[in-house]
Amino acid sequence: MGRLSSTEAVLGPELFKTVRETPVLVVGSGGIGCELLKNLVLVGFENIEIIDLDTIDLSNLNRQFLFRKPDISKPKSIVAAATARHFNPSSGIKIHARHGNIKEFENDVVWIKQFGVVMSALDNMDARRHINKLSLAAQVPLIESGTAGYLGQANPIIKGRTVCYDCVTRPPPKSFPVCTIRSTPSEPIHCIVWGKTYLFSKLFGEDDEALDEEELDKAKADGENAEEIENLKKEAEAFRQVRRMLGEEDGPQRVFKKVFFDDINRLLSMEDMWTRPGRVKPVALDYDKIMAGKFVPPPQRQAPAKGPAANGSAAPVQSPIPRKAHGATLKDQKELTTKENLELFLSSCQRLSARAIAHPDVVLSFDKDDDDTLDFVTAVANLRATAYGIPTRTRFQVKEMAGNIIPAIATTNAIVAGLVVMKALAVLKDQATLNQSFLRQSTNWPIKNSDMDKPNPACAVCNDIYIPLKVDLQKLTLGKFVEEIVQGWLKPAVAGDDDYEVTIMEGGRLLSDPDFDDNFGRTLADLGVTRGQYLTVADEDSVFCRVHFCITAPEENSDKRYTLPESVPEVPKRPTPAAALSDADDDEIVMADSAPPLEPTRAKRSGPHDSETPAKKQKMGLDEADAIEIQ
């Protein structure tokens, strides 16, 4: 009996044959991706392509089991493929591993059409939206997945049959006002963001005076306190002087005095700042008193209750292994005293200064796996929190929050990866009913299945029409694209003799509309259009669904400027807009291996999805290489 005889018996000969012959694509080789690749090999898939942009770092080793310590800094996809082959060495398995970005131009509609199923194991919204649109354009089934702590989900996405990733509206990532971060923090996350993105970059990052000035001017234009902004500009200049002191023996001590004593006293002198309700005056930190053990910290503010963190993100996931009350506390989980935080600040400053002096051409940046940078951010965040009466955080908690991560749990990844394969098998079997699965923190009902919703009529992604266009970008002008392809080929089949004016866009850029034909004489290449992008055609009255021409490479050994499909696809009229599905609890400031959406409530609705109806836009002159960005 062969190694896969049991699998064949379970799946049946027909489905097992389909599994062996179907090429599949795995996007991402992290926590879910490693488990998924192993599962695919063991089930019997023999033609697998995997792509990932990342390299292996130390923090991956506790949950991404295809990697070992000698693999650190190597491409994830290549190492994962090499390791996974050993799980089924006797088969004719072919794993094509690529170290690259799924958004690269060669990964276009023609490329992705070669796969029978695409499986997403991504960890960020932008890439997930990209693979969602690409799969819909090519009409290739996509299995979307994600985990966050003990929670997870897996669901199929098929054009015309199920909701897609963009059918659910998601709020933008959390952000914090400049003045809150720099002058009036009230939560631990404010102090951590300040230490990571502001103080660290001021002392050890690239000294970009123009960028800092631009950020403060924007904050002022957005209505933040003008007096505070002017003081922050003065503070930025003072930092440039302090930065030069870091290499001196007492440099870290002088930096401490400037940041935690002088600057705080300066803020205290601005009486109007502290008259607003809810603002608490900070206390200047005295270096000598802290080192002598005589400093008395101010009373702490009310600590947040259990549940969601104050910044809207999920509260840090606690370790499932309880600490022993009588045991030694782990270094990273120790609550540091004010003196210990000060000593950690001095030590990390010295280490980072030595690195900056030894390699002046290398710009330091925060890395949660770099002990020096993590020590620095932990120390300064806790010192700032102490000054403002905010609860401090352990080094482990700072790493979680500064790295924008939820601690990944290996068993969650394993379960979700198994669910992904089950969804893929259902798609290959062409089951009439497809469902989505949610992994929950419940002992009675850990995995909940529910039928997939139909596509959201208001979705501006999955209801649109996608047409592959093989084109020589150097030869085809925008004018000929409109005249021959849009007006000559597409419009007669869609609108007949009716007169509809159209707008042409690429992404958020306006290329032409009925009142703007200045770019008609320019080639698509001259307009910055590249392979893998979409030229979007929309009628001005928004009667029909939008049509996206998917730009692909021209036919080889052909003098044709472009090649179109044999027939014009049906372009339906826009459906009556319905309310978009809502996923208000999906907060993109917290990223796990892939943060999953919550279980949907079918009656839950929010405002309408942005259908991106074109309007009259600002015109672009012939001499402008970049088209106009539309928000």
Automatic annotation (TrEMBL):
GO biological process: one example: protein sumoylation
PROSITE patterns on file: PROKAR_LIPOPROTEIN (PS51257), UBIQUITIN_ACTIVAT_2 (PS00865)
Organism: Cutaneotrichosporon spelunceum
Source taxonomy: Eukaryota, Fungi, Dikarya, Basidiomycota, Agaricomycotina
Domain Ubiquitin/SUMO-activating enzyme ubiquitin-like: 469-545
Pathway(s) annotated for this protein in UniProt: Protein modification; protein sumoylation
Region span, Disordered: 297-330, 562-631
Recorded name of the encoding gene: UBA2
Record-annotated THIF-type NAD/FAD binding fold domain positions: 10-459
Alphabetically ordered keywords of this record: ATP-binding, Coiled coil, Metal-binding, Nucleotide-binding, Ubl conjugation pathway, Zinc
Recorded coiled-coil stretches: 211-249
Transmembrane segments: none
SUPFAM superfamilies from the UniProt entry: Activating enzymes of the ubiquitin-like proteins
Keyword Kinase in annotation: no
Domain Ubiquitin-activating enzyme SCCH: 337-399
Name of the featured protein: Ubiquitin-activating enzyme E1-like
Residues annotated as catalytic: C179
Binding site for Zn(2+): C164, C167, C459, C462
Pfam families: ThiF (PF00899), UAE_UbL (PF14732), UBA_E1_SCCH (PF10585)
Annotated GO MF terms: ATP binding; metal ion binding; SUMO activating enzyme activity
